[in-house]
């Protein structure tokens, strides 16, 4: 399996190298869909220039990346293109191995359950075969590396690619069961963009499941491990933040990075939901609605963790999708990361309901973004409403996609416990209706 | 959401859509065409009205007196133009200076990729002369442009004369709040392009020009005047700009309001408005006017010197004086008064024109159809593609148990399926690339080996590559390892249908007319093509509906509507020149129609061609 992965990596690197050399690179790096004020390369370069001049990079309200990133590029700025290509490669390889291990686990669990005769008899067609699962890790890597969104993001040198790499490593470490590394990478991801905070829950659930500790609030072992993991997480977060402080010599970065993410002062249009809403709003409602919008990202963690406590990897996927949809400065790179997981759930295909419609919507919206941007900004004939309408539709499409997968997952689980062909009390065939 | 979540209702709906797919598609197509034709019917259109407050309620008085003197200036200009054999730079600069303008010149040069045979030019060198009337009443942050072309022969001398006359008159007025720039541009659009690029410090097309020495504020609006005789019978308003962009409708409203006030016959597309909408002739007349607008807009080329302003977010229109054999004549003083009035109203603007519509079609000068009314016509056509795609999706999903994952099927259907879909897609796009790059690149080789001129070489190469693309499916199949499966063509067609739908949707948003014309011809292809239809007949139909033939039909329809019908041979000659003009427009001004057709539409059509010959 290493050979196809290498081929995919080479193809992906070639595409990126060609695009880096073409005139398109500059165009792509200006697109608001691809770069946000947080992760634009132009801003990183500005921050570097300020740093070289001995000024705090955060003075001037242009640079909003974390200190670690700027010190990373302080040394690697000449090799930026290679760094971004390697980051994508790392993400893909990490996801590849993570999914491979996850699939092995899933298959093993299924085997035990079958041996224990725990599934209803008509569910055999829902069972997953190794043959079907064999190519999934490769597909995941391919979905990430050859996804146009990832390619655009990489060519634009959006630092989103680095965040994705950290998240992918976090997922790999978690699935491998290394609590410490998982906590460190989660802390790093949180440090980068706050929102991965919500991935704490799925990671904890996964590690608990792995150690056969039941999720029971009355058990000390549960609280002991939770405490242990939380300490590791908070400790490494603390170390990273302090390290940033010592590197930079000031706390400038706190308001400039986290304040910037949470209070959304930059209303440059993007594919998210924030900019239009806050551009239209009266100033004195702003604080209230910012709280509402930001809580929205974090809030779903609780019900989802309760519902999906047996399926932490799926929970991770849903959480990443929610972050990508509801975060304050989303870019296509964030979307690419959770979309890479879609092949993992390919067995849910038969339960997906709106997949055709949703993909049509996403496809059309992706094409319409630049068109409406052109009409609004350059031609002046359309206006911001047109662009926001499309970004709204795009997000509705994403939400439908995620909720469709969620529904399909739950439905498969339901069938696995209740039998595939449900009968009503009077013996006629029953259908599941979501109301 | 009941429809999306209730499985029974969903099933019923999908059953309905798949069972009745063909009749629904047919009805949608006919409804789309009918809707479009209905747009010209007067009760369905809206009356134009002035939306901009700053131009609506304020009355201005027109007092321009010096039409005769302006015509005399025009004659003098003609003499000097003849003497200088081009732009009489010194004379014009002096004349403008004498009228109290700040005068500047800009020289430019441009080598065309190949000879423009219609305008007979290859290496273009010229000079623009412009004078700025500084606004006495405001801080010079905004400007208006009045331009007249310095064209070869005896054309447009009167326009320059009137420009000088108006400059003199405007100079003596005190109410100007915006700078007025009087521009005489040489070599029509090339000069205009050079001036606009110089003014905005951009260089999009790689032209050589000297930087502008004097600038005014940001340009709010521009009018371009074309006038070739001392008296005219009517004024024609030209709106269609580069890539089918239109100026704000208020500019057209302003023009027609002043025409009515002053009593000048005004036309659009050279057609007078008629009041008898309820008769067959009246309706036909409106349809003709609208179709002309659609054809012109679809061509994506600037139809007057104003066309390039629109790219810079400047509302602009060309006013063209027409002298036909009507009784009613208008003299230069009246035209001067009309322009004075328009400029005074534009001078009153507090912000850029933005109140009224940017997306509209005009079946007559006093009637318009806005985007909300005309988009359904396109939507009805586009929905056919989606219905067909849905049908295919259901077909692909039901008979064999689907093993592939859903989303993967869109992007990369795994295994041999992916190869059989990817190969035609890549090959047809490569053909498109060839069609886009080769004609201009290979003209020298072609001229060496064949007895043709450069322009002919470019056009004929383009046609040759276009035709050669038709031979592709057979070669594509040689490249494939196995033979195409039933599943294979369905996936390919699904991809092609969605591709076409997205493509047409994007085009229709930027340039409705182009999108609609392409949809009318390409949607039937997308709907009916399968490998199982009779090959020969379908091939003929497909070729007849291909983008190239669409262009040919458009030329014949255009000539017919211009009341200058052409024979087949003449039509063919026009067809050849239109292709060369399209390529020239792309390289000179950045018109997007040629690359769009070559790089996206044509490959998409080739995909359907591939499906027809699927083995």
UniProtKB/TrEMBL annotation, chain A:
Q: Indicate the transmembrane segments per the record.
A: 82-102, 166-188, 194-213, 225-251, 257-278, 285-306, 318-344, 356-379, 385-407
Coiled-coil region(s) at which residues? none
Q: Which GO terms describe its biological process?
A: attachment of GPI anchor to protein; GPI anchor biosynthetic process
This chain's protein is named: Phosphatidylinositol glycan anchor biosynthesis class U protein
Q: Which organism is it from?
A: Chanos chanos
Q: Which keywords does this chain's UniProt record carry?
A: Endoplasmic reticulum, GPI-anchor biosynthesis, Membrane, Transmembrane, Transmembrane helix
**InterPro entries linked to this entry:** PIG-U (IPR009600)
Give the principal location in a single coarse category: endoplasmic reticulum
TrEMBL record, chain B:
The membrane topology noted for this protein in its Swiss-Prot or TrEMBL record is: Multi-pass membrane protein
The record's subcellular location field reads: Endoplasmic reticulum membrane
Instruction: State where it is primarily located.
Output: endoplasmic reticulum
Q: Name one GO cellular component term.
A: GPI-anchor transamidase complex
Ordered alphabetically, the record's keywords are: Disulfide bond, Endoplasmic reticulum, Glycoprotein, GPI-anchor biosynthesis, Membrane, Transmembrane, Transmembrane helix
Which residues are listed as membrane-spanning?
20-41, 371-390, 496-529, 536-558, 564-584, 591-612
Q: Which Pfam families match?
A: Gaa1
Q: Highest taxon of the source?
A: Eukaryota
InterPro entries reported in the protein's UniProt record: Gaa1
Answer yes or no on keyword Glycoprotein: yes
Entry's Gene Ontology BP terms: attachment of GPI anchor to protein; GPI anchor biosynthetic process
User: Which SUPFAM superfamilies does the entry link to?
Assistant: Zn-dependent exopeptidases
Q: In which pathway does it act?
A: Glycolipid biosynthesis; glycosylphosphatidylinositol-anchor biosynthesis
Q: What does this protein do?
A: Component of the glycosylphosphatidylinositol-anchor (GPI-anchor) transamidase (GPI-T) complex that catalyzes the formation of the linkage between a proprotein and a GPI-anchor and participates in GPI anchored protein biosynthesis. Binds GPI-anchor.
Name under which the protein is recorded? GPI-anchor transamidase component GPAA1
Organism in which the protein naturally occurs: Chanos chanos
Q: Which gene encodes it?
A: gpaa1
């Amino acid at each position: 399996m290493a050979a196809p992965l290498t081929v995919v990596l080479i193809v992906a690197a070639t595409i990126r190298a060609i695009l880096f050399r073409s005139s398109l690179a500059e165009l792509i790096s200006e697109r608001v869909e691809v770069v946000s004020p947080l992760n634009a390369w132009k801003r990183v370069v500005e921050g570097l220039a300020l740093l070289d001049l001995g000024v705090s990079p955060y003075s001037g309200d242009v640079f909003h990346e974390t200190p670690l990133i700027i010190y990373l590029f302080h040394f690697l700025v000449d090799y930026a293109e290679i760094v971004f290509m390697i980051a994508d490669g790392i993400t893909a390889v990490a996801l590849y191995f993570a999914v491979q291990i996850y699939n092995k686990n899933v298959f093993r669990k299924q085997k035990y359950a079958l041996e224990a005769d725990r599934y209803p008899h008509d569910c055999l067609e829902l069972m997953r075969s190794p043959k079907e699962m064999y190519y999934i890790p490769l597909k995941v890597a391919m979905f990430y590396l050859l996804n146009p969104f990832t390619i655009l993001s990489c060519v634009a040198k959006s630092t989103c690619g680095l965040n994705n790499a950290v998240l992918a490593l976090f997922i790999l470490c978690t699935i491998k069961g290394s609590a410490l590394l998982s906590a460190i990478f989660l802390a790093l991801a949180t440090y980068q963009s706050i929102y991965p905070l919500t991935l704490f829950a799925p990671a904890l659930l996964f590690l608990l499941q792995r150690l056969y500790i039941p999720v029971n609030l009355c058990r000390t072992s549960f609280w002991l491990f939770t405490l242990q993991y939380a300490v590791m997480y908070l400790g490494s977060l603390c170390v990273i933040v302090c390290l940033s402080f010592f590197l930079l010599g000031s706390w400038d970065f706190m308001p400039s990075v986290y304040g910037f993410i949470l209070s959304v002062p930059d209303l440059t249009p993007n594919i998210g939901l924030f900019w239009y809403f806050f551009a239209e709003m009266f100033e004195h409602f702003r604080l209230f609605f910012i709280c509402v919008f930001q809580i929205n990202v974090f809030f779903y963690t609780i019900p989802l963790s309760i519902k999906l406590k047996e399926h932490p990897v799926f929970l991770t996927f849903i959480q990443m999708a929610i972050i990508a949809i509801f975060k304050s400065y989303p870019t296509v790179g964030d979307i690419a990361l959770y979309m890479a997981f879609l092949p993992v759930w390919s067995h849910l295909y038969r339960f997906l309901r709106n997949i055709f419609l949703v993909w049509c919507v996403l496809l059309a919206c992706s094409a319409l973004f630049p068109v409406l941007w052109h009409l609004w900004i350059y031609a002046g004939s359309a206006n911001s409403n047109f662009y926001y309408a499309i970004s709204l539709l795009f997000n509705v499409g994403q939400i439908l996609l995620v909720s469709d997968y969620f529904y399909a997952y739950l439905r498969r689980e339901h069938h696995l416990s209740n039998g595939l062909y449900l009968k009503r009390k009077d013996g006629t065939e029953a259908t599941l209706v979501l109301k | 959401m009941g429809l999306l979540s209730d499985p029974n209702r969903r099933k019923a709906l999908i059953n309905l859509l798949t069972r009745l797919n063909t009749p629904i598609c047919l009805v949608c197509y006919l409804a789309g065409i009918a809707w479009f034709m209905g747009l010209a019917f007067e009760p369905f259109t809206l009356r134009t009205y002035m939306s901009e407050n700053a131009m609506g309620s304020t009355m201005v008085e027109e007092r321009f007196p010096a039409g005769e003197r302006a015509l005399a200036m025009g004659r003098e200009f003609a003499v000097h133009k003849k003497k200088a054999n081009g732009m009489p730079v010194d004379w014009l600069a002096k004349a403008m200076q004498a009228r109290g303008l700040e005068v500047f010149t800009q020289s430019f040069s441009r080598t065309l990729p190949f000879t423009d045979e219609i305008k007979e030019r290859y290496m273009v060198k010229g000079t623009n002369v412009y004078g700025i009337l500084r606004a006495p009443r405001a801080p010079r942050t905004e400007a208006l442009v009045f331009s007249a072309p310095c064209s070869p022969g005896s054309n447009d001398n009167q326009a320059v004369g009137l420009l000088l006359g108006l400059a003199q008159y405007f100079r003596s007025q005190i109410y100007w709040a915006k700078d007025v720039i009087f521009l005489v541009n040489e070599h029509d659009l090339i000069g205009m392009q050079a001036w606009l690029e110089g003014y905005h410090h951009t260089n999009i097309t790689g032209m050589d020009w000297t930087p502008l020495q004097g600038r005014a504020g940001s340009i709010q609006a521009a009018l371009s005047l074309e006038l070739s005789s001392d008296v005219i019978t009517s004024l024609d308003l030209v709106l269609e700009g580069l890539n089918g962009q239109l100026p704000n409708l208020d500019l057209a409203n302003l023009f027609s309001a002043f025409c009515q006030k002053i009593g000048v016959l005004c036309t659009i597309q050279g057609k007078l408005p008629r009041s008898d909408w309820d008769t067959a002739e009246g309706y036909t007349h409106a349809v003709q006017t609208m179709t002309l607008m659609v054809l012109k807009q679809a061509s994506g080329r600037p139809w007057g010197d104003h066309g390039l302003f629109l790219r810079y977010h400047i509302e602009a229109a060309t006013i063209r004086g027409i002298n036909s054999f009507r009784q009613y004549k208008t003299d230069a003083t009246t035209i001067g008064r009309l322009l004075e009035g328009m400029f005074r109203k534009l001078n009153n603007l507090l912000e850029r024109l933005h109140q009224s519509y940017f997306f509209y079609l005009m079946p007559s000068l006093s009637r318009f159809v806005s985007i909300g009314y005309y988009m359904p016509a396109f939507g009805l056509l586009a929905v056919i593609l989606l219905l067909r795609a849905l049908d295919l999706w259901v077909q692909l999903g039901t008979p064999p148990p689907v093993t592939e994952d859903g989303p993967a099927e869109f992007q990369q259907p795994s295994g041999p399926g992916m190869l059989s879909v990817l190969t035609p897609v890549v090959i047809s796009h490569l053909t498109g690339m060839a069609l886009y790059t080769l004609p201009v690149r290979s003209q020298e080789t072609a001229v060496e080996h064949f007895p043709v001129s450069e322009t002919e070489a470019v056009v004929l190469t383009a046609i040759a590559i276009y035709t050669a693309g038709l031979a592709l499916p057979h070669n594509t199949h040689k490249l494939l390892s196995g033979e195409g499966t039933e599943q294979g063509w369905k996936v390919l067609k699904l991809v092609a249908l969605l591709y076409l739908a997205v493509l047409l949707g994007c085009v229709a948003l930027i340039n409705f007319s182009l999108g609609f014309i392409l949809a009318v011809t390409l949607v039937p292809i997308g709907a009916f093509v399968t490998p199982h239809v009779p090959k020969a007949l379908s091939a003929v139909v497909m070729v007849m509906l291909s983008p190239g033939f669409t262009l040919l039909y458009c030329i014949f329809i255009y000539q017919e509507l211009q009341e200058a019908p052409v024979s087949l041979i003449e039509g063919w000659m026009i067809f050849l020149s239109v292709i060369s003009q399209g390529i020239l427009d792309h390289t000179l001004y950045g018109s997007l129609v040629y690359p769009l057709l070559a790089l996206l539409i044509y490959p998409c059509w080739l995909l359907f061609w591939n499906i027809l010959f699927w083995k």
